[in-house]
Amino acid sequence: MKGQKRSFWARARKDWIRNRSLYFLMLPPILFYILFHYKPMYGVIIAFKDYSPTVGIAKSPWVGLEHFKRFFSSVYFGRLVRNTFLLNVYNLLFGFPAPIILALLLNEVRSRRFKNAVQTITYMPHFISLVVITGIVKDFCVSTGIFNDVVALFGGERTNLLMNPGLYRSLYVGSGIWSGIGWGSIIYLAALAGVDSQLYEAASIDGAGKWKQLIHVTLPSISPTIITMLILRIGQLMSLGYEKTLLLYNSAVYETADIISTYTYRMGLGNQEWSYSAAVGLFNSAINIVLLLAANRISRKYTETSLW
Amino acid sequence: MTDNLFLGMRRVKMKSKRLTALALTAAIVATMTGCGGKTDTTQTTAAATTAATTAAATTAAQAETGSQAPETTAADDGFSYPMEPGDKLTIWWPLDTVIAARFSNYGDSHLAKNWQAQTGVELEFQHPPVEQQSAQFNLIMADGDYPDMMFYNWLGFKGGPETAIKDGVILELNDIFEQYCPNIMKFLAEHPDIDRMIKTDDGRYYCFPWFPNVGGEGYEILEHTWGPMIRKDWLDELGLDIPVTIDDWTEVLTAFKEKKGVKAPWTIWWTGTSAKRYDPFLCAYGQILQQYVGTDGKIHLYYGEDGYRDYLALYHQWYEEGLLDVDFASVSREDINYKILNGETGSTSMWSGVDMGNWYSMNTDPNFELVATPWPVVHEGDTPEFGAATVAYTGQNCVAITTACKDVERAARMLDWCYGEEGHLAMNFGIEGESYEMVDGYPKFTDLIVNNPEGLTIAEALCDYSLGTTSGPLVVDPRLFEQYYTIDAQKEAAAIWKNNGAVHVKPPYTMTAEENSEFSKLNGEMSTYVKEMTMKFILGTESLDNWDTYVENLKAMGLERAIELNQIAYERYLNR
To answer: Which of A180, B28, B30, B275 is 20 to 30 A (C-alpha) from B521?
Structure first.
């Protein structure tokens, strides 16, 4: 035992001497994670306490699982989980393939100029602040907005689209695709650029048309990228940012729009119930990690690609 | 198919893998940094409360009997301003939006410089980003590194000002008032009713308040600053009278809709807390969107009140008929400006100061004429019982001295100066000879304010010299508003808007920490439900026939207990 240990330290020292510069390079990211991702975890403890800012985290009284019980018995519990889940699933279902399709289409475009133009135009919304993006969406959706102009053209009645709970999810997901599609396609375009052109030649000699080439050469070539991206995406499944919802929703569409993170926000910052909202947020994270583990496992089982 | 997929995958060359990995890393890094950026730009939904907003939200409390006037014992012999130089003091001060548009640091203003020169105290202003006040405030609380003074709504502190004192955040001011503050003591001795408002239940003073309307003779102009207004030129064109009852309104709005083709005959700033709170048609049915003192002298909450049902029924009818703005739920202050200036709206409810003034100066329609209308009533001949009214003190915007204060005496004396004769003029009118001249004992603004050479509006020019139209530690002087209103329609508004609302608005009572926590738990659930059902009832997705079920649900959520908690706190207030 002892000998083994010494040899480990000996090896570690040797490694340190040899790769010192690499260790130094690693230092900033490690510090970043410690400071901004691990240290704040201490604050999660307030989910089990009755936190008051003036008393401090350490001195606030311990209440155990009370806040969790309150959330689980809340009338909104079921609806919040359902809304969060559905919005995420739709976002994944429609939002995930969209950039892949755009990348595949762009890949087939022969005119460089046209391709560049399309790329630039589709990237653009990514660089606009979310606040502005939602502002644009809101302006489009009001009764005098462009969507209603189209509706009115076909004889429909002008209504505020953002006040219709049935349309909320489509608007949310649709605007997400619009603002993110160009940026999301970069990575797939990079992957596509790396596909060996000999494969296409071989396929076309074997008699494969464009469609067959797409199915048998292109997609398999970029599938590791797709799957890695998919796993990363699933890991964020329940963690939709509250910002966009907060900027888009109103009380008329709470029924479909209110998600766990906006509820946390309203309770925490609006009602100053820090501990309760920390508990709700922690619950959200717990679901996240379960989903991530499950996705990774499924992926490893069926595709030989996984995060770890 | 799957076999093929994996065959193909393995055949992919190393080169492509490396490229992909690189792109992946880049994307991940980008996403990470992207997230960081997003958080910064995120805005809170907290309504943009300008001081004007607070003015309308300002609640009323009547001069009731029973409170004892403090004795004027604060006599400082041999003391005079300015004080000897000493430590620089810090003051945390959320900027009003009008001020923030001109100053990034209010210490650069003429008012602040004058204040420091006159009192001899060097000040350092600390401003949280506009609209992030409460988040920043909470950060300071959690951090424990308090500035010397903090300008905040201390009544909104969780558990009330008592808790803030008990937790060691701010100082109890009773002794300090007595020792160093002759001006405020004199003021409180003259106004025993106000004295009760600014104390805690156990009789402790906690701040130097902002008094937007101390009431009494000559102060009428300050009482009603917000209310309904309508396009007078359209009324004249259609041969209609100014609407008084709700039936009149329906008729007028229908005419606007049918004969003028107006898209949104009636609109209201629904996303602004205080505008929604005093919706004129809600007031017509005897409700306010917060706790209020009913005609029976008890605390009420609108959630399940019959008046609220009637209001929802009216709005539902108007929504169906296209009289109510179809976008009402998302209407922002900018939207209102746009709709009024472009003739998309014929009537709304706003401030006679900022809004009416801006609309008159910005519109391009030569016939444009907007007038205030009386608060609507249900029956002909009724006098408006409910409505927006400004009162002396609501707890909003007052300066407390924190436990971290380096020099309590200097801080207290500096704040007390604002309530003295000299300070009163300086806080309301600025610097004599610069922003105002004394003409027969009347402080008259110079052209620098009313006719600014650089083309600033009155509100913009004023904020450099006066805190009267925004907020601060001062008693607002009606003579300021007499000159602030320049258009006839603005000057007339206060009289037209006369209502008895001041009696009904809840006085600044405070709940204990336990009561507060119980109330906010109950209310947290209920308020979401009420907001949602309100929308459903108005849009018609839920029939008002289900009103009783709705009320039953609220009762199951603890409505009665929530009101009772308020009643208990209110009774404690009355017994002060």
So the answer is: B275
- Best A32, A37, A49, A54 member to test B by mutation, with max B CBs in 10 Å, is A54
Q: What is the ipTM, given to two decimal places?
A: 0.70
The 10s digit of each residue's pLDDT in B226-267 is 999 999 999 999 999 999 999 999 999 999 999 999 989 999
Fold classification of B84-216+392-420 (topology level): D-Maltodextrin-Binding Protein; domain 2 (3.40.190)
Q: Report CA A20 to chain centroid distance, whole Å.
A: 36
A221 → closest Cβ in B8, B28, B529: B8
φ, ψ at B436 (rounded to 5°) = -145, 160
The answer to whether the bond into B384 is cis (omega within 30° of 0) is: no
- The pLDDT tens digits for B395-439 are 778 999 999 998 999 999 999 999 999 999 999 999 999 999 999
Residue A59 lies in a domain: no
CA angle centred on B378, ends B376 and B380, rounded to 5°: 90
The model scores a pTM over 0.80:
no
Here the tokens at position B115 are 């204040």
Task: Name which of A251, A246, A277 is nearest A74 in CA terms.
Answer: A277
Residues A38 and A120 in one domain: no
Strand B149-152, strand B89-92: pairing: parallel
Pairing of strands B123-126, B89-92: parallel
A224 contacts in chain B (CB < 8 Å): 9, 12, 17, 20
Spatial separation of the C-alpha atoms in residues B195 and B189, rounded to whole Å: 8
